[in-house]
Amino acid sequence: MKNLTHAVAIDGPSGAGKSTLARKVAADLKFVYVDTGAIYRSIGWYALQNGVSLECAEDIAQLLPSLKVEIQYGEDGLQHMLVNKRDVTKEIRLPEISVAASKVAAVPAVREFLLEMQRNLAREHNVVMDGRDIGTVVLPDASCKIFLTASAEVRAERRCKELEERGTPQEYGVVLEDMKRRDEQDRTRKIAPLKQAEDAILLDTSALNFESSFEALLQIIKERIGDET
Ligand code: DC
Questions:
Q1: 66, 139 in Cβ contact below 8 A?
Q2: What is the Å distance from ligand 1's center to 13 Cα?
Q3: Each residue of 201-229: pLDDT tens digit?
């Protein structure tokens, strides 16, 4: 049966520019943008709040029945994350939450818990969804799949700039090492590891600035689904 909604799946390692590019592309297409990393970050935040060991998958899984994660779109169109009704949108961007998110994301019960939530969003809306396993696991039938990447050095530079703009600067060397560690963890985990779907188009933005990356991304998407929207 033909899908009634369109889904654009964008996967790739951290710092590849997925969220900024995906948000802009979604606005251009008038699709809903879903940042799935923010959902894992919300669970990482909740685990830290509850003093749960990030090394213990069972303890993390036991948190799930008491946890309600919701996405709300503000008037600004931005995705807000609510954890048991508390808005954690800003807090989940702290570096310690990046580490916690990567840890909880490796827990099968967490991924299972979030699967239907993500799929429901794609059933209800035209979406641009970004993450690590969107094209491979969450939306294997997505109309268009893109694997967005850049060299680790370029990604670390971009992340440093972003952290500086947020008022939480960090040293380049630290950011690069953190990023490599997190990539390794996301790539080698047993469940839903970060990898390019067979039918995804690879877009390497190492040598592209934001505008050129955006144009390239939009062109790929429009070639795939443009005529149908
Ligand atoms: O994209 P991000 O850095 O905000 O993601 C935070 C963590 O969540 C990252 O380490 C990988 C994990 N994640 C995942 O496993 N699957 C997704 N679909 C999205 C994020």
A1: no
A2: 8
A3: 999 999 999 999 999 999 999 999 875 55
